[in-house]
Amino acid sequence: xxxxFSTAIYDERALRAALQEADIVxxxxxxxxxxxxxxxxxxxxxxxxxxxxxQEEIPEQLKEKIRDRLVETLKSHTGVSLNLxxxxxxxxxxxxxxxxxxxxxxxxxxxxxxxxxxxERHSRITAAGGEARQPPKGFKVVVIGAxxxxxxxxxxLEQAGIPFVILEKNADIGGTWFENSYPxxxxxxxxHYFSYSFSPNNDWPHHFSKQGEILSYIRxxxxxxKLRDRIRLGVxxxxxxxxxxxxRWNIETVDGQxxxxxxxxxxxxxxxxxLNRPFIPRIEGLEFFKGAKxxxxxxxxxxxxxxxxxxxxxxxxxxxxxxxxxAPDVAELLVFQRxxxxxxxxxxxxxxxxxGHRWALNHIPFFSQWQRFQLFWVSAESFHDTLxxxxxxxxxxxxxxxxNHAVREQLVAYIRxxxxxxxxLIGKCTPNYPPYGSRMLRDNNWYRMLKxxxxxxxxDAISHVTENAIVMEDGTRxxxxxxxxxxxxxxxxxxxxxxxxxxxxxxxxxxxGDDDPRAYKGMTVPQFPNFFVMYGPNTNPGPGGSTIxxxxxxxxxxxxxxxxxxxxxxxxxxxxxxxxxxxxxxxxERCANMVWSHPRVTSWYKNAAGRxxxxxxxxxxxxxxxxxxxxPSEYLCVPRTEVKPSATEFVTDDVE
Length: 656
Ligand code: NAP
Fold this sequence. Notes:
single chain; alpha/beta; FAD/NAD(P)-binding domain; 3 domains; five-stranded parallel sheet; 32% helix; 15% strand; globular; disordered C terminus; binds NADP nicotinamide-adenine-dinucleotide phosphate
């Protein structure tokens, strides 16, 4: 496939000014892609130590040469339409390897081409060879949830011409980015990767943007793809059951006024995510507390933190962002920590994207895609192998293998440098389990916050709460005006509290138990025909990486399944039990050997029995590969002609 683009009429001054601020490595890669000049690639290679922008040490003179050459190249193409055939595989692989400062296997080349738009991610959604077959009369899809996954599904359904509606319980779209509005809320995955590949945003104001900016991106994307009319807000799905007589899903909803409504659909897609039901621990006496008390995902904006004594319970990703954001304003911040988390510094975490960099992203062909590839790589792929247990590793209690131990040492050194000799605090802040066992956090000036005079880190166990205080097991009383629960979500109770019933009335909750979900490729479940889960069991990118990348993999697979139903006239498709079971045995086996299963780790990645239910054991490449193709032979596919006539009737007076 060729990509065609028209080069702008570049204003040379603007171009040169932008290149001074733009990251040099994507600049280099664009130059090599446009000119085929491998000499300059190899000249720069030794100075690129990693994929983050701050990991290059290219001498200024060489940078100038790269910039000058790119200016000349772009000028020579000014105003013309270019057809670009991708470089051949070996050259691309060399370019990718230089981009990230280490050898990239050739298996990544097709993925990169897809990410660059040089091969199509969603091409298989339309029927192979010619016009897509129209869905049969009455064929409809209900999507539950209008967060990033649901919007992703909607865009693809819309483009494939498949009728659908999204049902969203909240008053607006955005999912977790709508619900979480606590001070400091933002993303930990770099934004130029944490965005849809088919709708990139080259105008992110920060490398890691805040909640408002992400919510605005989601809203703009919904507008751009004209989805607003397809989303019904304030409508919560309470139950869904598969009606075998007509091969349809019956879906029941309730709105804010308690009005119940029933809909029918051919296929049901859950896009409710894993992090939408807040968890507040049961603490004796909490109901008697008279001050403000709320969860981070339900931030009470009427509560004025200024001058108050605030208790922050929980020190995960949410606590890490809230604490330093409110510490300067509160009279006192008491941080209640159970287990410490590992936190890494990232030089770009608080950085704004410069104007020149934004200009380059917007105007220079393939600049944003090369940067995206770098971020894809560094977010997870580069270190995924180091998250596996080396059975011969002698320090297995605190690390997994040599590389993981080296990371541990760097992190410990970082904690020590931040806390400058405060041995008590250093001890409290140093986890006793291997790095990446729980979610690796980005240091949001957490350690500096802990050194503030008005901040206290409390690691003793909470006994109970009174009307104005938190009381510890040793009897110490901490009087507070408010309790903020940064205590996470009921992730393993996936799809709860919805009641979902498949064939023969089988209840998903009974099948999964309270917190033990399993699905084929995280998406399909035996006995639940025409039912798909996005961000389902074992699909959380544990080490990092973008959930959006996972959503795109999932919707591609789901769209192929729907396309197979339409093209082959299947009334139902249902994953075979043995296929599902085999897949999950592999998932469990892989997870058991990874850092999240480490016995010292307690985290939301595991269920009460200690099984990892949330995290994907796959590299992003592997998940992309296993979701490339929907394979009908893995499913019980029942043609419409084989079902009794009444079952082929589609009800049309619903869903719209
Ligand atoms: P979390 O990671 O599950 O952290 C919950 C915290 O509450 C932990 O420190 C936990 O301690 C503590 N806790 C739970 N029960 C407790 C109890 N009974 N007493 C005292 N402490 C208790 O939740 P989260 O911080 O909301 O993050 C959840 C996930 O959301 C993240 O991992 C991430 O995927 C996503 N998120 C991302 C961002 C971002 O991108 N920056 C921000 C927020 C959230 P233990 O560790 O001892 O269990």
